[in-house]
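pinned: reference chain
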Amino acid sequence: MSEPDAPRYQTIDAGPRQVVHSPEQVELHLPVAGPTTRMLSYAIDWVALLVLWIVALVTLLLATPAATWLARLFDGVKLHPGQAPEDLEPILFLFAFFLLVQLVVEWGYFIAFETLSNGRSLGKRLMGLRVVRDGGLPITLREAAVRNLLRTVDVLPANYLVGLIAMLLSEQGKRLGDLAAGTVVVRLDRPAPAEPLPADAPEAQAGFRFDRAQLGLLGPRERALVRQTLRRLDQLPPETAARSLEMAVEALRARLGYGPVAPEERLAFLRAVLHAIRAE
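pinned: its structure tokens
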């Protein structure tokens, strides 16, 4: 199944955050990760990469003819103390060999992790970061491949200097790989705990009654729907709030086997369900 080309989310730059508007017009604030956090994340990944590089080299040398090939390559190379070797070709080949192994391991590590772990490498997971598309959607293999193959440019001339300059100049902290792939690294900040819903007086729900059998039909999802809908109503535009309230009430009414609820009584019905849940 192909994904739609046009994003369903509108992204607006808001300083260190991306404000994403969902189709329901709910604002999702995605805090953009800064250079320091990303450098710490890469430091963790670098340790993991170092282990993988060593494992890959040992495997190549022991399980393939690479060791024999390197031995033949250096056979006859004369080294004199204090002098450069007479034949630089084997040394250049060795340098290219190790560089190729390093690139393959690094590319494979990040592309695999970010594709299979929803935009999170080991370092990003430990630092609470995630790579997403500009619209806030999860990245795919294409975005992961583009942003990581361009590490060869971001790393120039050394120690990711080009990538660091690009992040400092970009309002969204993007390196060149992110600009090309249309991705951004965001922080997964833990949200503040939701404020408890106010308790309604029992008289407010006098018109609605639910027995134990009906309440037993409400699982964790339905109970969460009641609380989340009541919390969101004041934050939504009037038309969106009315539609969300209608959808929630219809879903709960069908689950409870309850009769029709008039539009003007939907909010009271939802509060009555919450009151009944609390009184169990």
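why pinned: Confidence is low (pLDDT under 50) at residues 1-15. The beta strands are 10-14, 17-21, 27-31, 129-133, 183-187.
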